[in-house]
Amino acid sequence: MTKPNPRATALNLPPLDPLPEATQAYFDICQEKLGMIPNVLAAYAFDVEKLNAFTAMYNELMLGESGLSKLEREMIAVVVSAVNRCFYCLTAHGAAVRALSGDPGLGEALVMNYRVADVTPKQRAMLDFAVAMTEASAKIDEADRQTLRDHGFSDRDIWDIAATASFFNMSNRMASAVDMRPNPEYHGQNR
Description:
About 65% of the residues lie in helices and about 0% in strands. It is mainly α.
């Protein structure tokens, strides 16, 4: 039986023991497919309702149907996390960018300064919007949305860009507040 890391954060909130059957099955799948249980899941394992809410939103945003590719959604996660200096998400989602793109340099550029990354003008506009949301969301206006339309994004795509950036702003703040640590496995992946 696969067990989550009981010290995924600085808080003393050990995972439920035993985990509910469905949660244990989900963690077993993570262990099988990823070779680990991501610490973000372990961090939420003390409260199954919170874990289920987090994973439902994450899975819909990052794996669900969208006009954005999985790589583009991961790029947003990294760029938002770079602005917020979220160690957990930069490490975990930087590894995902490396895996999905096959380009370790892209992952590193997005972590350090997305403006030097080798991305398309359309992707650059998407990342500019995600950064603007992260830095001053109240200043977003119709001109910002129109810039995305001018680069070929639909209104549904704009929703998905905004939802992904919003989710990672929340996740970054939570991870920083509780000192969530990335699994060591992420550091060496896809280099």
